[in-house]
Amino acid sequence: MNQLNDQVAIVTGGGRGFGQAIAKALAANGCAVTVTSRTASQVAETAAAIGAEGGRALGLQADVNSQADWERVVRETESKLGPVTLLVANAALSDPAGPVYEADPDVWQKTLDTNVMGSMRGARAVLPGMVARGKGRMIIISTSSALAATPYTSPYRVSKAALLRLAEILALEVKDHGISVFSIHPGVINSTILDSAARTDEGRRWVPHFAAMVESGRAFTGTDQCAECCVFLASGAADGLSGRYVSATEDYRVLAARADEIREKDLQVLRLTQLSDALNQAWRL
Predict the structure, then answer these.
(1) What is the band of 254 on the pLDDT scale with cuts at 50, 70, 90?
(2) φ/ψ of residue 38, rounded to 5
(3) In the chain, which end has fewer C-beta atoms inside a 10 angstrom radius, N or C?
(4) CA dist list (Å): 188 to 96, 193, 210
(5) Strand, coil or helix: 243
(6) CB–CB of 161/176 below 8 Å?
(7) pTM (two decimals)
(8) Cβ neighbours of 69 (radius 10 Å)
(9) Whole-angstrom Cα distance, residue 102 to residue 169?
(10) 156 annotated active-site
(11) What is the dihedral of CA 19, 29, 173, 109, to 10 degrees?
């Protein structure tokens, strides 16, 4: 398949889990891919696997919290693979589990920095080039957890909710430059994020249901659905949904076909619907 053969992507957190699956799927569809992670061996392994299948890939060790690393990643990618047309912001942390009043603020902050600022830094690094060229896409990996307020996983849920709003704002800012931005729910896998929440003392105390999920192996969707959704979004078939939340576990093709209706009714976005129309209007002024 070669529907993405004119594209160059950067995938963060690409050494394992969803990031690795996304990178491989993009490459299998003709996209050249730079895979980044803080763990050099993981990105090297992913890039090598893509190369073995005939794809073009570059593995770069990098920290999404470092703007210098971001600038280096973009520079090396464009030097070796070409101008970046797609960013998949996937790198994430989930710690700490427990009530806010017992949380280590520095650990809580680190999760927000990685999940939110990591995506913002990535946007800051790639969007100027996309704006100059008049085309590009960004996919931000959020989660359905962003849609529900449940206790004891506050940094993860707060950060992922923030990503929904970040995607919407970015989409508004770049809509006149031929760029689309999406936030997606990737599904659920037995990832290191879930495992760490389930296996730590804090996790077993505050979120025992995660441990039950890991031990039973139930409720996992695997990585294929997320990877296929990212390929679909990268293809341009869903550009009408720019700024919207898309779930890889649902029929996103139907959403794309109903993009006009979704925009008209202002669906697939975070909204406080309980407010009166008058107060909503006042907030928009």
Answers:
(1) very high
(2) -75, -15
(3) C
(4) 19, 10, 11
(5) coil
(6) no
(7) 0.90
(8) 18
(9) 32
(10) yes
(11) 0
Q: Which residue in this structure is represented by tokens 């009043």?
A: 101
Which two structure tokens, joined as six digits, stand for 91? Answer: 């790198």
Give the number of other Cβ atoms within 10 Å of residue 182's Cβ: 29
Other beta carbons within 10 Å of 269: 16
Nearest to 39 by CA among 60, 10, 11: 60
d(CA 139, CA 15): 17
For 11, the token pair is 């995938």
Rounded Cα distance, 11 and 88, in Å: 5
Distance CA(278)–CA(284), nearest Å, equals 10
Instruction: List Cα–Cα distances, 127 to 94, 124, 178, in angstroms.
Output: 27, 6, 11
- Mean pLDDT across the stretch 5-34? 95
**102: CB partners within 8 A, 6+ apart:** none
**Cβ atoms 168, 243 nearer than 8 A:** yes
**Domains located in the chain, CATH noted:** 8-284 (3.40.50.720)
**What pLDDT, on the 0 to 100 scale, is given for residue 124?**
98
Written as six digits, the tokens of 253 are 């093709």
Give the integer Cα–Cα distance in Å for 72 and 151: 38
Residues 275 and 285: their CA atoms lie apart, in Å, by 15
Which ranges of 151-258 would DSSP assign to H, the alpha helix?
154-174, 192-199, 201-206, 208-216, 224-234, 252-257
Q: Assess contact for 233 and 137: CB atoms under 8 A.
A: yes
Active-site residue identified among 101, 152, 156, 245 = 156
Tell me the two tokens of residue 44.
């090297």
The torsion angles phi and psi of 214, rounded to 5 degrees, stand at: -65, -45
pLDDT category at 206 given cuts 50, 70, 90 is low
Least confident of 73-87, 97-111, 188-202: 188-202
Q: CB atoms < 10 A from the CB of 29, how many?
A: 21
pLDDT digits (tens, 9 = 90+) for 145-157: 778 888 888 888 9
